[in-house]
Design goal:
The chain is of the alpha+beta class and 634 residues long. It is 41% helix and 18% strand. The chain has five domains: 2-113, 3-Layer(aba) Sandwich (GIY-YIG endonuclease), CATH 3.40.1440.10; 128-266, no CATH class; 280-387, Nucleotidyltransferase, domain 5; 403-552, Nucleotidyltransferase, domain 5 (2-Layer Sandwich), CATH 3.30.420; 565-631, DNA polymerase, domain 1, CATH 1.10.150.
């Protein structure tokens, strides 16, 4: 998206401030903007701080007129803007041909730079969706998090609660006879699985199931997920009567039971917009002394599926709401209509929204009492988010006074008996995870040593070579030794390094995390349960989970590589075998029936067994088995 936006912009040279205007970020001094230097075209402007840091990104229909609002004597200059101007040392402009392009470029730059003084939702997660790929002759219901625009795939959702999505999936699996297996398993099966024998699948993997019959079930699932239960029940009742008239009483009884189960499932669901079959997202914002609260309701087929709310520290409600909506849909999210309760939206907003979403989006207006009820519900969620104030974190206890801790990086090291050494780094900004900035580091120079301190030093060298943005705080999972291994490489950058380690008592229920500083023997006296310690623990735990996930993925890949070294074993077969066997020797002792049960054909099963037995009986068997063991999960 960034490339496309750059191509849309027109040539507009950056106008540097006058020398007398630059304050070099001195505390208390305000950066002076000279609007007469800037053009009158649409575009975006970027305030930059020391070290070329992007502090704020804004868009304007007329850049010169908009920058007038940043003069020190401008009326209504908010405290937040004053704080930003005290840190700014330069302002840049990029001209665009239209206001719509300015909106798009602003959203792209905010997503790329995540400026401190902008509205940044920090909601990178994608909600759960159900997907059906109609290109497959016998499609299954998949759970996904990303929408890939395709005329062959149907999406249903979003589900903000994973529990609600799992419950819906369990209901569908019990009501409809769709296959449950993955495509790779489906392609390799030679006999039906347990789902067929307990009456929860038609067994199209092995049996001759008419595609028309299976397609009818897929259509039933689509009607159910679309909220069109009335149409689904009507069709099923018609089929039941036709089966009864044809004296197919067993089929009629099955349809009767399915109808009753569906009626019991949808009995508790109530449509807030009866007769509406269009997906709708309702946005609302409320303003108060504690900042802004913004909420979105997800309405699908007249029913509210879920909601999400954000708390922002911003002054301009309408500007914040527009920025939040564009950021939320950047990258493509499932929506066809949006209701934004803003007093007035520019004409370019709908065009920009369609472009960032990747498909046509319709802006709706409030009509009728039921629609106003949805707006009130969204406002209630926004008000609740606005009133929730997180506990204040006093970083001066940790990193000293006059330091602004916004970006925290945390690192942890993982290996299995000295093999597969890697470091995992996570990033948190303003207390929220930034998964797009997470990184794995493979450390081959530390292989076979089992030296965590050496691994940390190697990681610190790699991180320093990567360059900015530098963290305001670097957290290491460990104590004095781990901190001493990392801190010297960041000392000249002014990045404080902390270590978070377990206390002497490691029994369940008696864990005591302690914070260590470079050159300090005793840990910091942080109170258990304090906001500072709780945040550090959350960041440390995220780093631990992230590096372990990478370690397990690496072991799985190593295990598959070991299997693929056997003659006649490809990637698909290796993945199947990995789920059952833990050693090459164990595979060699298996029977042909064991492999057929995994979905292998008799010919393939005999070939794999012969290859495994030959590997174990030769001198190479030990090395192959060692590869297998290194790939095994701890």
């Amino acid at each position: 998206m960034g490339i496309g936006l750059a191509m849309m912009t027109t040539d507009c040279s950056t106008q540097p401030p006058l020398p007398s205007a630059s304050t070099k970020g001195q505390r208390g001094a305000v950066f002076v903007v000279h609007p007469e230097q800037y053009p009158t075209t649409p575009g975006v402007y970027l305030f930059r701080g020391p070290g070329d840091e992007v502090l704020y990104v804004g868009k304007a229909k007329n850049l010169r007129r908009r920058l007038l609002a940043y003069r020190p004597d401008a009326p209504g200059l908010s405290l937040k803007t004053q704080a930003m101007l005290r840190r700014a040392v330069a302002v840049e402009t990029v001209c665009t041909a239209t206001e719509k392009e300015a909106l798009l470029l602003e959203a792209s730059l905010i997503k790329a730079h995540r400026p401190k003084y902008n509205i940044v939702l920090r909601d990178d997660k994608n909600y759960l969706l159900f997907a059906i790929d109609h290109q497959h002759p016998y499609p299954t219901l998949r759970t996904v998090r990303r929408v890939r625009v395709s005329k062959h795939t149907s999406y249903f959702g979003p589900y903000t609660s994973a529990g609600a999505a799992r419950q819906t999936r369990r209901i569908i699996d019990g009501l409809f006879l769709l296959r449950k297996c993955r495509d790779t398993v489906f392609a390799n099966r030679v006999r039906p699985c347990l789902q067929y024998h307990i009456g929860r699948c038609l067994g199209p993997c092995c049996l001759d199931v008419p595609r028309e019959e299976y397609a009818a079930i897929v259509r039933q699932v689509e009607l159910f997920l679309s909220g069109k239960s009335g149409e689904l029940l009507s069709r099923l009742r018609q089929e039941m009567h036709q089966a009864a008239q044809a004296l197919q009483f067993e089929r009629a009884a099955q349809l009767r039971d399915q109808i009753r189960a569906i009626e019991a499932t949808v009995e508790g669901q109530s449509a807030v917009l009866p007769g509406e079959h269009e997906d709708l997202d309702v946005w609302a914002a409320v303003e108060g002394e504690r900042g802004l609260g913004i909420a979105v309701l997800f309405v699908r087929q007249g029913r509210v599926l879920g909601a999400n709310a954000f708390r922002l520290t911003a002054a301009a409600l309408q500007e914040a709401l527009q920025a939040a909506v564009l950021q939320f849909y950047t990258g493509g999210r499932l929506v066809s209509s949006v209701l934004v309760t803003a007093p007035a939206l520019p004409g370019a907003f709908a065009e920009a929204l369609t472009e960032v979403a990747g498909h046509p989006v319709r802006l709706r207006s409030v009509r009728g009492e039921r629609m106003r009820g949805l707006v009130r519900m969204a406002e209630a969620n926004a008000r609740q988010a606005q009133q929730v104030v997180p506990p204040a974190v006093r970083w001066e206890r940790v990193v000293g006074p006059n330091r602004d801790v916004r970006r925290i990086e945390a690192v942890d090291v993982s290996h299995l008996h000295g093999q597969g050494v890697r470091a995992g780094m996570v990033v948190f900004e303003d207390g929220a995870a930034v998964p797009s900035a997470y990184r794995h580091y493979l450390l081959p120079a530390a292989e076979g040593r089992g030296d965590d301190l050496m691994a940390l030093r190697l990681w610190a060298e790699r991180r320093r070579a990567a360059g900015p943005p530098w963290p305001d705080l670097l957290l290491v999972d460990g104590g004095q030794g781990q901190v001493a291994a990392v801190a010297p490489l960041f000392e000249d950058l002014g990045v404080p390094v902390l270590g978070l380690a377990k206390g002497p008592s490691r029994r369940a229920g008696e864990l005591e995390d302690r914070v260590y500083l470079p050159g300090r023997k005793n840990p910091l006296p942080l109170r258990p349960g304090s906001p500072e310690l709780l945040l550090l623990q959350r960041v440390r735990d995220a780093a631990h989970r992230f590096v372990l996930a990478g370690q397990r993925q690496g072991r799985r890949q190593g295990l598959i590589s070991a299997l693929e070294s056997l003659p006649g074993v490809g990637p698909a077969t290796a993945r199947q075998l990995r789920q059952r066997f833990h050693r090459v020797a164990e595979l060699a002792q298996a029977t042909e029936a064991d492999l057929i049960a995994l979905g292998l054909s008799p010919q393939r099963a005999r070939a794999v067994l012969a290859a495994a037995q030959e590997a174990v009986s030769t001198a190479n068997g030990a090395s192959v088995d060692a590869m297998y063991r290194r790939g095994e999960e701890a």
